[in-house]
Amino acid sequence: MAVERLLKDEATEEKGERARMASFVGAMAIADLVKTTLGPKGMDKILQSTGRGRSVTVTNDGATILKSLHIDNPAAKVLVDISKVQDDEVGDGTTSVVVLAGELLREAEKLTNAKVHPMTVIAGYRMAAECARNALLQKVLDNKDDPEKFKSDLMNIAMTTLSSKILSQDKEHFAKLAVDAVLRLKGSTNLEAIQIIKKAGGSLVDSFLDEGFILDKKIGIGQPKRIENAKILVANTAMDTDKVKIYGARVRVDSMAKVAEIEGAEKEKMREKVQKIIAHGINCFINRQLIYNFPEELFADAGILAIEHADFEGIERLALVTGGEIASTFDNPESVKLGHCKLIEEIMIGEDKLIHFSGVEMGQACTIVLRGASQHVLDEAERSLHDALCVLSQTVNDSRVLLGGGWPEMVMAKDVDNLARRTPGKKSLAIEAFSRALLAIPTIIADNAGLDSAELISQLRAEHHKEKSNAGIDVISGCVGDMEKLGISESFKVKQAVLLSATEASEMILRVDQIITCAPRRREDRM
């Protein structure tokens, strides 16, 4: 019995086959969970949290779904991680990467049951992934030099990304918004400069792109409603010191007159601070904290627009966009960088008043205002748009483009199959399995659209054996279509990330032969 007692009482371990079995099953379950969201006809999931408020999320984004799940299975956690990384790295393809990894493991399970050693499978997968990547590299299109063509590529990529999301009905409209916003960035992948404001009401088609910056605040009372050639001081400071602030302080005074003196001193202090701020020669003061009515009055007298309680993200972005810095002390005006913009005015969106800054320093900045029926619609629209923006900003840097609709998978599968025929030994089984896993993606796209996937995939395969084929699945008409004519394209970077992450994740799970679960820490009796 001495051997058994290696681990603590409640720790469990799974060995060999059983461990591998557990990890395969977990990973495949996760893949099956998200695979119905794949493709233009993919469905959405409702995620309801059990916490307070029972918040409900309706989403189609693989990473969002997986992030919200609490998972016990260790292998499934690996898949959740790769989808998170895919989301941070390139923004789109979060579902594909999980599905592909799941399929690779499903194939690997068959092989290990047929007594092929996992290391052999891994070696085969490595070769296959390399081969698949090269296949894509040969077929890639690059229209960097022709701005017109490149812009249409970007439009197509945006429409393809959006077509599996809630925005698919108005995808032209949103693709245009996204492309315009990203082209303004001029090649930087910093999406901070694109602000997305969500306003319930109206419908999704009413969304628009506004150059400049919109702050979700109202303009104070009795203050100028529009300012031209604004000099903006962005600050984070307390403007509420006309009351005694020392809590629990007891001030003994002989008469009411003395109280008035104290209050007067406080007011003086405030007035000095305001004077210092005005000395910067500004005509717009934006503060992150609240501004009491006394200093607000002083600002209004000086003809300065004062905005209080600007939310923090808004204020940081505002400082970034107008080229100013956030100040908290005002003693030396020369060292503070002021922000500039051509015009500040109040605009109405739906029911709400917002403040609009136009002609800002950073030409890249813009604001996308989303309108929609309800908060859930808006949240999902924002996620979809964020995916599109990420993919586009990556594509602007790495302008290589592929066709979509299952075309890249077919191209890769064809080359990988050829490699399998040339490779001697058991590795060839793994390489063949890899190509079957790649075919799963177009299969699932077809299945989700309710088409006969077996029929379609065999037609596709036949098409791809001809030279230079552009065949992919046309979900709308339900048959094999020409992807170039339909304008369905994807970013090379996304596809490559999907391929490599999925391969690496499945490799990692394949290497497992033992799962040891730690014993929970006992709570000692504190009595």
UniProtKB/TrEMBL annotation:
The keyword Phosphoprotein does not apply. It is found in: Cytoplasm. GO terms for cellular component: chaperonin-containing T-complex. Gene3D superfamilies: GroEL (3.50.7.10), GroEL-like equatorial domain (1.10.560.10), TCP-1-like chaperonin intermediate domain (3.30.260.10). Signal peptide: none annotated. It comes from the Eukaryota. One of its GO terms (molecular function) is ATP binding. It holds the Pfam family Cpn60_TCP1. Transmembrane segments: none annotated. Keywords: ATP-binding, Chaperone, Cytoplasm, Nucleotide-binding. Molecular chaperone; assists the folding of proteins upon ATP hydrolysis. Known to play a role, in vitro, in the folding of actin and tubulin. Belongs to the TCP-1 chaperonin family. This is CCT-beta. It comes from Dendrobium thyrsiflorum (Pinecone-like raceme dendrobium). The lineage of its organism: Eukaryota, Viridiplantae, Streptophyta, Embryophyta, Tracheophyta.
